[in-house]
Design goal:
The chain is an alpha+beta fold and 248 residues long. It contains 10 helices and 4 strands, in the order H-H-H-H-H-H-H-E-H-E-E-H-E-H. The chain folds into 2 domains: 23-106, no CATH class; 118-245, Reverse transcriptase/Diguanylate cyclase domain (Alpha-Beta Plaits). It has helices at 23-28, 34-41, 47-59, 64-78, 85-106, 118-135, 139-142, 158-178, 203-216, 235-245, and strands spanning 143-149, 184-189, 192-198, 225-230. Helix 4 (64-78) runs antiparallel to helix 5 and helix 8 (158-178) runs antiparallel to helix 9 (203-216).
Amino acid sequence: MGLFTTSSRRTVIADDASQEMPERLRDEVPARFEAVGEALVAGSRAHAACAVVGRELARDGVDLREALDGLRSTFAQVLGCDPDFGSTEALSVAWSDETLGYLHQVSCENPLTGLATLAHLRARLAELQRAAEASGTPVTTGHALVVVDLPTRRSSSLDDHFGHALLMARIADRARLVFSGEESIAEATASRLLVLAPRTDDLGLRVVVLRDLISDSNPLGGAVRVWIEGLPSSHAAMAALLDELART
């Protein structure tokens, strides 16, 4: 059983224009790549099928080299050539996204950015709420969330994918310069990070300093938004707030 195997498996579906492969080719195409082969036989782009296969293989614990070997073999059997860049990129990005998603679930930290995961931040907030209930001091007066919003730039390019992760890592370093204590700094989305910080007298000043530091090092252009988000008192409202902040 692979590392990412789940109880319900996703069916690999090729583009709508796909058609059945001849049995001769079906026997020669690597397992799981039938949908890619069908798309190629139909003469349509196989990018969507490659993305689905990449996610499927990652969930089964197949490493990226083996996945790319399967893609190369499929193209060789069906078209007699190497995979095009778009198909290779689609499989690689999907494989890495699925792998990182799994790592986020079992780790409290994003291995690419060094930022805490949203799940870790939820657990940290739950701890604060329990402590507040025990002491009788509202969590709303003791802590707040500092929200950092970067300009978004959507791209499926593998270089942009990892380049944006490196940018978030640099932004996290700026945040740690300003919040160098026990504050939790988490990644809510690909362009938004959250800092769980104590409500100190200088919190507003720290936010201004952080905004200036990030604006000076942001290569994306556009305005960087940084603001203080108050914490609600109930568990349900807290969960709803994090869900809202995690939307892109």
